[in-house]
Design brief:
Elements: H1 7-23, H2 26-33, H3 40-48, H4 67-79, H5 86-100, H6 107-111, E1 117-120, H7 122-125, E2 132-136, E3 139-148, E4 154-158, E5 164-168, E6 174-179, E7 188-197, E8 199-202, H8 205-240, E9 242-243, E10 246-247, H9 252-281, H10 283-312, H11 323-335, H12 340-350
Parallel strand pairs: 1-4
Antiparallel strand pairs: 2-3, 3-7, 4-5, 5-8, 6-7, 9-10
Helix pairs in contact: 1-3, 1-4, 4-8, 4-9, 5-8, 8-9, 8-10, 8-11, 9-10, 10-11, 10-12
Length: about 350
């Protein structure tokens, strides 16, 4: 692996960042978070850039790029706290359909932005007593909580046995309820199944694991981008805010806070890039690397979000600055697809470190 991005990858990163700078500023994020508008316009623009087609093979109507390219996009989306169904529609669902050879007819509409797929993996990662799904004669019964994307046209649902099923949002007996979480930049729902006809995608736990690994790397990349934004905002604020007729960035304590954030965050970039590379090219390392990337970024992201808020002082908590959108997104990423404690235990088991 080259320890740096190719010219094509840099161009992809710059193109996505330019689009998001223009189409997903804080004012738009604030409107979407307040449910005044939806994420449709932003997603349409990302579709025009080919983002949902990144991982779809060319012969199926996609671009045919790799997981590292998707991680680069995820980092940009996190940097802008972008409200978009990227994780499900552009990464996890396409990979599941490609790996299993099922539902491939949906890949074209997904790549063209005509179809959105949400993800309901909670039961296979950390089942809860008041949730759970059962399958009988091809029909799902029960509920799945903290599923992603309230506007999805269908959902990829994982059972406790790591079996994957696909359910249309228009299916008889299916309903969903919007959940309130700290992260307002993405929607989360509870899915209820009452004898809903479900299409089996895969009964191979290996397929589930590969899809989950990819999702975790994308969450790590999203946190990396969000934390980088928080750091950049803290540095900019420290250069402008004055106390005792001096900018606060000249105070040693503030300098140390900013330096510690930068020193903690910068090594994470190579970890995320390597994890994205390993997904496609080093399968024997991909699971452990995905776990480490997800867990480490969760911890570093939380530290950076907290410290950046402290640099801002009281202003860091205001909606005027808007830093709380990134703070809460990092917090949601920490738990989504597995907390750092759970993921580290999983990594330890993979390496034979748990009796």
């Amino acid at each position: 692996m080259e320890f740096g991005l190719s010219s094509e990858q840099t161009l992809l990163q710059d193109t996505v960042n330019r689009f998001l700078d223009e189409q997903a500023p804080l004012a738009t994020v604030r409107q979407i978070a307040a449910a005044e508008i939806d994420d449709g316009a932003i997603w349409k623009g990302l579709v025009e850039l080919g983002i949902p087609a990144l991982l779809v093979p060319e012969h199926l109507g996609g671009v045919g790029l790799g997981s590292l390219d998707a991680a680069i996009v995820a980092e940009s989306l996190g940097y802008h706290a972008t409200p978009a169904p990227f994780l499900g529609t552009a990464v996890m669902a396409p990979l599941a359909f490609i790996q299993s050879g099922q539902q491939e007819a949906l890949l074209g509409p997904m790549a063209q932005g005509d179809y959105r797929v949400g993800i309901a993996f909670g039961e296979a990662i950390g089942a809860r007593n008041d949730a759970g799904t059962t399958v009988s004669s091809g029909k799902l019964t029960g509920k799945a909580i903290f599923a992603l994307d309230a506007a999805a046209d269908g959902y990829l649902v994982a059972t406790r046995e790591k079996h994957l099923y696909f359910v249309e949002a228009t299916a008889k007996g299916f309903s969903r309820r919007l959940l309130t979480t700290v992260d307002k930049t993405r929607t989360t729902v509870e899915l209820v199944f009452d004898g809903v006809v479900a299409d089996l995608v895969s009964q191979d736990p290996g397929v589930f694991d590969r899809v989950l690994d990819a999702g975790r790397v994308m969450q790590a990349a999203d946190t990396l981008g969000a934390a980088q934004y928080a750091l950049d905002q803290a540095v900019d604020y420290a250069k402008q805010r004055k106390q005792f007729e001096r900018v606060i960035g000249s105070f040693q304590a503030v300098k140390h806070m900013c330096a510690e954030m930068a020193a903690s965050l910068e090594p994470c970039r190579s970890l995320v890039w390597y994890a994205g590379h390993a997904l496609d090219h080093i399968p024997e390392e991909s699971r452990v690397t995905a776990c480490h990337a997800k867990a480490h970024l969760a911890e570093v992201g939380r530290f950076v979000a907290k410290t950046a808020t402290e640099v801002h002082g009281g202003m860091g908590f205001t909606d005027l600055v808007g830093l709380h959108y990134w703070f809460k997104r990092i917090g949601a990423n920490r738990q989504l697809l597995g907390s750092p404690e759970l993921v580290r235990e999983e990594a330890a088991r993979l390496q034979g470190m748990v009796a």
